[in-house]
Amino acid sequence: MYGSSIGSLYVNLTSTNGSQTLFSQNDNTGDSWFVTSISIPASNGEIQFIGVRGNSYRGDIAIDDVQFLDGVCSTAIPITTPSPNTLPLNCTFEDTTACFLKDVVGSDDFDWTIRSSSTPTSGTGPTSAAEGTKYAYIETSGKQLGSKAILEGSVSVPVADSPICLTFDYHMYGASTGTLEVSFDDMIYFYESGDKGNQWNKAKLILHKCPGNSDVSKITFIGTRGSSYKGDIAIDNVQLTDGLCEKPFQNGVTKNAG
To answer: Residue ranges of the MAM domain (predicted)?
Structure first.
């Protein structure tokens, strides 16, 4: 995995019990080959190697010499279930490793891209972040109408129906802008479509954990491509905190992006 714009490599186990990520790597590991061993849980399933493109052509990923052997690997990477994130949570996209939102693998059509300058296409997208230097956006050039990119994160909320405040900045500019949807526990709390002007807008929403669900909830951001490439959608400065929002609202201009 060598290059300045490396994406991600995943090894997943898919069985009747669902899908489990056995290995993931999203760093530039240099111009060298590395040996990895993984102990696979006993099951009737399918092993998938998934390579995800980064934000430019400088990010080739390669594999070789794949072997399946009986028994436990002597130097196996332990398989652990990541702990759910606890409130408060903040994602400014300045450091992607610290962001609680991650690209979904396998169930969407393309990925969100982290950027620190104007998007490549004129007449769409922001020219800079809402705050800081970086933001996440969907690059709609070369994609099909209705193609989706999904970011999601797990959140530990042990108390049912306890309020959570979600705030984020969003930018939807272009003649063919599609939709941005935010759901929590599979309930849609935010849905916007079309051109909202060349500016960052702020959303401030009160979320509620559904009674009867597990202690771990899921928040999802879905960007959907419109009818042409002039429809980039961006988000920035996503925050989740306990309790009610102060003066909640859905829309409000935060910063002119021109």
So the answer is: 1-75, 89-247
Structure tokens at 85: 């994130």
Considering the domain architecture, whether residues 102 and 45 belong to the same structural domain is answered as no
> What pTM was estimated for this model as a whole?
0.67
Query: Given 81, 115, 142, which residue is the final one in a domain?
Result: 81
Whole-number Å distance between alpha carbons of 123 and 88 = 36
Cα 215 versus chain centre, distance: 21
| Largest interatomic CA distance in the chain | 60
Number of domains comprising the chain: 2
Q: What burial letters (b/e) apply to 33-50, b meaning 16+ CB within 10 Å? A: eeeeeeebeeeebeeeee
Torsion 150-155-160-165 (CA) sign: negative
Q: Give just the sign of the alpha carbon dihedral 201, 204, 209, 210.
A: negative
Report pLDDT digits (tens) over 29-63: 777 788 888 888 777 788 889 888 877 777 889 99
What integer pLDDT is reported at residue 255 of this predicted model? Answer: 43
What CATH number does residue 103 fall under?
A: 2.60.120.200
Work out the average pLDDT over 160-189. 93
Coil, strand or helix: which one is 98? helix
pLDDT tens-place string over residues 211-229: 766 678 889 999 999 999 9
107 and 139 housed in the same domain: yes
As to burial, measured by CB atoms within 10 angstroms (0-12 exposed, 13-18 middle, 19+ buried), residue 170 is buried
